[in-house]
Amino acid sequence: MTEPAFLVLTALVDEPRHGYGIAQEVERLSEGRVQLKIGTLYGVLDRLAADGFVEADREEVRQGRLRRYYRLTDEGARALEEEAVRLADNARRAVDRLRLRQAGGLA
Amino acid sequence: MSERSGGRSERSGGRSVLEERYRRWLRLLPASYRAEREEEMVSAFMEGAQPGRIGNDDQRPRFLEIASVAALALRLRLGGPGSPPGSYLWGEAVRRAALLGLVFWTVIAGLYAGQAVLTYGIPVDALPDGVMGIGDPGSPDRMRLVLADLTPLLWVAALGALVRGRARTAKAAAIAALVVPYALVPPFTLGWESAVRWACSALPAVVTVLALAIGFHRDAPPPRLPARRALLLLVLPIAVGLLLSLVVGVLGAATRAGTISERLLIPVWMWVDTTGLACVALLAVAVWCAIRRRTPGRPVAPVALAAAILTVPVALARATTWPLGVADATRLAATLQLAVLVASGITLVVVGVRALRTADGGLTEVRGQPG
């Protein structure tokens, strides 16, 4: 799973969001490091929808503009959890080894 | 003020100029995709727009926004497995253009490497008449020229990476193969006319790199071939290139010995330069496609369209390096090559389009495409 896909799924965990809302939330989650451009965002959404990880939730018209909201599916939540666990395991192993190195264990 | 905060003017039927500009760029996307997504994409763009001095009317889409839409359009129009049939077919055509191009440049790499061995005396005095290359042995000039002859081997690396499923490595190697030779031996151009000629002669390689860059993407990764098949795909074109280097070596010796008449010298050499060899290769593909056009289960459309794509830069390269003020035989050879390219191009387009029509929605028969 790519980082943008991971962040998009994470952005949809708490509530359905529309395109710009997802882009904003991804920027917040990554502390400004990942700024998804709209073309890139929709490419990611297409792939996630094709995999069954997200689906359209509802449509709203605000100030004459269409907002289509997307929500995380159960399958998407499972995929995100698996990926999060994998990343957390990797991060934990890295931290463990760095601690060992600092303690002189691997030096 | 309300217009500024709302970001809308009364132009274009209530749409701001910025919105119109976004919609114009979104036309890069396929119509079916636009019908589904345009409104929400415009909405997302406009929500992220920063109003300027006079609202949104003095704003323009930012470069990265346009680039992201262009990249999405390319991925959609050159689709991978699972994409709509039309987009998948064009994706396959571009990907096969990249593959055919890489195979051709691998032949050229074999030819150049073989020639480097013969010309620069590895082993020394390999040629019957003891010809030597430019620059003294061991000199920086000699080193630079030998390297320039060996850098086409980067095409081999690109093809190798591609057939083993490593698209990024293949792209990096292909770009290096395109650029490094010119860095080692800068092109000699006198005025804009010769610069245009040089640019056109570089087009066939540029198109190969472009096809590789845009054809293989996240939704259409290259398949990883089994090691033996991948090796065969590398060894065969290199072997052909090495054989060609022997032919060129013999031709060179015959030229120096004066066996070939001066009148026929250039016409003969025109068939073993890069454009001439590309011409012969495209003719061979056109004949192959024409013969195989009715073979069931192996649609030729993507290959025919791929070769048709490659024919365009080769024909341009031939046309812009047209021999002027030279013997009739040379002009005849150039005319013949251009005629072969045009005929091959037309044949390939006709075969490709007819194969599509015959299939009648049977684009799904293209291998790898789920029905």
From TrEMBL, chain A:
Residues 8-82 form the Transcription regulator PadR N-terminal domain. It holds the Pfam family PadR. PANTHER family: PADR-FAMILY TRANSCRIPTIONAL REGULATOR. This is PadR family transcriptional regulator. It comes from Microbispora catharanthi.
TrEMBL record, chain B:
Keywords: Membrane, Transmembrane, Transmembrane helix. This is Uncharacterized protein. It comes from Microbispora catharanthi. The keyword Membrane applies. It comes from the Bacteria. The chain crosses the membrane at residues 97-122, 142-163, 170-189, 195-218, 230-254, 266-291, 303-320, 332-353.
